[in-house]
Amino acid sequence: MIQAKAYAAQDSQTDLAPWDFERREVGPHDVQIEILFCGVCHSDLHQIKNDWFPGVFPMVPGHEIVGRIIKVGDHVKNFKIGELAGVGCMVDSCQVCENCKEGLEQYCFEGNTQTYNNLDRSGVPTYGGYSNTIVVREEFVLHVSDKLSLAATAPLLCAGITTYSPLRHWKVGKGHKLAVLGLGGLGHMGVKFGVAFGAEVTVLSTSASKEAAAKELGAHKFVVTSDPEQVKAVKSSFDFILDTVSAPHDMNMYLSLLKTNGVHICVGVPPEPMSIAAFSLLGGRRSVAGSGIGGVRETQEMLDFCVQHNIVSDIEVIDIKDITKSYERMLKGDVRYRFVIDMATL
Ligand code: NAP
Ligand code: ZN
Predict the structure, then answer these.
(1) CA–CA distances in Å: residue 268 to residues 60, 184, 206
(2) Average pLDDT over residues 68-95
(3) In the chain, N or C terminus with fewer CB closer than 10 Å?
(4) Hey, which of 106, 181, 186 would you mutate to test ligand 1's pocket, going by the most ligand atoms within 8 Å of its Cβ?
């Protein structure tokens, strides 16, 4: 077994703290990565707090992982020791169902194996990226370029692909009016991709203080959703809303901002179900849809797109000792726009 160090939550009530544990040996199809940076996703906080379902504890969160390969198994074909690599939200799937074969491993019929807070296919708990090292089968490892900031690349592995994938699926681009709802880790990547794909992008935010920063990200318009006048001015105006909000919110109000045939795409995962009036949909033939991360192939495509277009996340690098403080700030919407842990501080 490989001795590993991490920060872990021992249960849903306790703050993260240092924890030593073991990872599996590098198998013939595995890659071992020395983790250099790991992004802090709101999903990490949802999961250590049991917001969605009872978690697997001790829990080592983190699914925005970048680092350097330090060992490869005998049958590994696509990765070499010394290369940069990334790991996102999944580390395995059945690989044989229709969805896996199509490169939609996130929708594996048997369920994908999540990078943490899950049991792997042999029943062993998975531990995430707030750690010094990880062992992952090569099919779930991504190539990472040395042309971009490595720390700022980490959030692409979740926040990046989770916003890239739906915008690609719905072919959002030139001629479309896209609203990005919530300007946090996911939202700011949604703005960057929406702009890169040619859409007119409006940020719908609860935080008036984010306006200037949103425009710097490339957003064309900014609406403070607590101001009824500003909201009224954008009624029935968007083709798509990319909803990245992590807490319950008034879906019916946001649906009224869609044009006829508009699509409200949920990527944020509030702990509570939200209610939608049928009238909000039928008056304008609107739909509500959802999208989960992205497949491995599409994640690589997104990383390559980011290299071509010089896109990374806007980050604040933190010491792992400050993780609890960072969660508190994230809950208040006080992060521009992603915390990334420098694993050298572990
Ligand atoms: P985040 O950085 O905390 O951003 C969420 C943003 O939502 C906040 O910055 C805030 O933006 C807005 N917001 C928060 N509370 C709100 C409220 N009560 N009403 C309206 N807006 C509110 O979180 P994140 O890391 O981007 O993650 C966002 C959500 O996506 C989380 O639920 C996460 O679990 C989920 N997620 C889903 C997937 C997927 O596969 N679908 C993948 C990753 C994450 P403003 O200040 O601009 O209002
Ligand atoms: Zn995430």
Answers:
(1) 21, 11, 15
(2) 98
(3) N
(4) 186
* Residue-range definition of the domain harbouring residue 263: 160-290
DSSP per-residue letters across 49-68: TTSSS---SSB-----EEEE
Q: Over the stretch 158-210, which tens digit does the pLDDT of each residue have?
A: 999 999 999 999 999 999 999 999 999 999 999 999 999 999 999 999 999 99
Q: What atom of ligand 1 comes closest to residue 248's alpha carbon?
A: 18
CA of 189 to the centre of ligand 2 (A): 12
Instruction: For the chain, give the mean pLDDT.
Output: 98
Look up tokens 């319950």; give the residue. Answer: 248
CATH number at residue 51: 3.90.180.10
Task: Report pLDDT digits (tens) over 210-269.
Answer: 999 999 999 999 999 999 999 999 999 999 999 999 999 999 999 999 999 999 999 999
Same domain, 86 and 115: yes
Q: Whose CA is nearest to atom 39 of ligand 1?
A: 292
CATH code of the domain containing 256 = 3.40.50.720
**Do 128 and 235 lie in a common domain?**
no
